[in-house]
Design brief:
- The chain has helices spanning about 5-15, 20-35, 115-130, and strands at about 40-45, 50, 55-60, 75-80, 90-95, 100-105.
- The chain is of the alpha+beta class.
- The protein has a 6-stranded antiparallel β-sheet with strand order 1-2-3-4-6-5.
């Protein structure tokens, strides 16, 4: 995966004071790096974004946490052409017809599984099919 020059320092700054969340992200990143070797990662102020030709996924920290959400988690955002019907999806919105944004909470490493990576693969393919 293509990383900018200061990627490691930017990731540490992004997760400053959140070692559990950093550990979850590092596990997810290792899986994504193996699955998407041609992708690019970019650390921004509010999220870490993953791109092919277009944005296909992101990781963020919960800003408006619902009471039912785990205390320590990361939010994996996935863009698809259809709505995922899964209890793992915390929030799903359709900002444009035929474009669904899904937020999946990850609070333990076991949740970084083949199902989540499959959704990210679908998101990659959907993003790559856009003009």
């Amino acid at each position: 995966m293509k990383k900018p020059e200061y990627y490691e320092a930017d990731v540490l700054f992004f997760f400053d004071g959140k070692p559990l969340e950093l550990s979850l992200y590092e596990t997810l990143f290792r899986r994504m790096e193996a699955e998407f070797p041609d992708a690019t990662v970019k650390v921004q102020k509010s999220q870490i974004s993953f791109y092919g030709r277009h944005l296909f996924g992101a990781v963020s920290l919960p800003v408006r946490r619902k009471k039912s959400w785990p205390e320590h988690c990361i939010v994996v955002t996935i863009g698809l052409s259809n709505q995922l019907e899964s209890p793992r999806v915390a929030v799903a919105v359709e900002p444009y017809p035929g474009r669904w944004t899904h937020h999946v909470l990850v609070s333990e490493e076991a949740q970084i599984d083949d199902e989540l990576l499959g959704w990210l693969r679908e998101a990659w393919e959907f993003a790559e099919s856009k003009r």
